[in-house]
Amino acid sequence: MTVDEIFQSVMRTFHYTSDKELFQCAEYWQTVDELEMNGGMGDCEDAAAAFVFALRKHGHTARYVLCLTETQEAHLVAETEGMILDNRHTQVMPLDRLAGYKWLACSGEKPGEPWRRIDGIA
Predict the structure, then answer these.
(1) Per residue in 83-105, pLDDT tens?
(2) pTM
(3) Alpha helices in the chain (DSSP H)
(4) 26 contact partners, CB below 8 Å, separation of at least 6
(5) How far apart are CA 3 and CA 122, in angstroms?
(6) What are the structural domains, with CATH classification, of the chain?
(7) Using the 8-state DSSP alphabet, how is residue 96 labeled?
(8) How distant, in Å, are the alpha carbons of 71, 79, 120 from that of 49?
């Protein structure tokens, strides 16, 4: 599957729902299986997990990227080959076209690799 096909596949079933509304807590990271069992309801890290899982399953490198949005809210997206998969958008976006995001940290491209800070990228 292409990156665009993976994005559209995840977004067809994803329904943004806050952790407070869904789990009555401030933060809860669902597994991909839990997201599916919950009818695709989740927040940004749940969408990012679904993107990363599907990308890796189909042979793409993928990692998580933590950022601040234009309203200074913490947000998690998936990145592959300079492209961002973000539940706040309707299509895959090139990294350099996401104005207003401040990149803070990223995971490794393989499960278990450490996260690292991103300095000097706005």
Answers:
(1) 999 999 999 999 888 888 999 99
(2) 0.90
(3) 3-13, 19-23, 32-37, 44-57
(4) 19, 20
(5) 24
(6) 3-117 (3.10.620.30)
(7) G
(8) 23, 11, 26
